[in-house]
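Researcher: We're teaching a course module on how sequence relates to structure. For the next exercise, students receive a sequence and then see the predicted structure as tokens, so they can try to spot secondary structure elements on their own. Here is the exercise chain.
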Amino acid sequence: MDSGWYLLLFVVVFCRCAEAIEYAKYKNPSKSITARVEDLLARMTLEEKIGQMTQIERTVATADVMKNYYIGSVLSGGGSAPAPKASPATWMNMVDELQKGALSTRLQIPMIYGIDAVHGHNNVYGATIFPHNVGLGATRDPDLARRIGAATALEVRATGIQYAFAPCIAVRLLH
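Model: And here is the predicted structure for the students to work with:
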């Protein structure tokens, strides 16, 4: 081959690499959030957008469901556990398996897993159980509420879950 063919081959390979880099703009953390969101939304089909706006209950979630329906979020409501007496490791393995399904889609958008943790991470066997928000509010002890929130956050994160429906702040209005 003469040098002209090598140059042509180099240009073709370079252009293909540049296309691949451009294709992943929404994954590029150096781009602005606005640019990344606009790029991702422009690439998504209607089915992908609907799936990303959908939160399903854990009992119907599988890696295949995450992949085939582009599900954006999974929720474990009160009492929804992957197995009786599920350990933190069992929870983490389940969340990881669902995440693998979400990441195996064309756009590789990670899912968000949410859990009802209003009483602490009460769906996990052996977790600390705390009083309901109304009971916490009745203590009039903001430091206690902060410590309970921190303990719950630690237990939730240790199971691979990113989002908790956990103790909220309720302010009483005096009239």
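Model: If you want an answer key for the exercise: The CA atoms of residues 99 and 133 lie 31 Å apart. The chain has seven helices and four strands.
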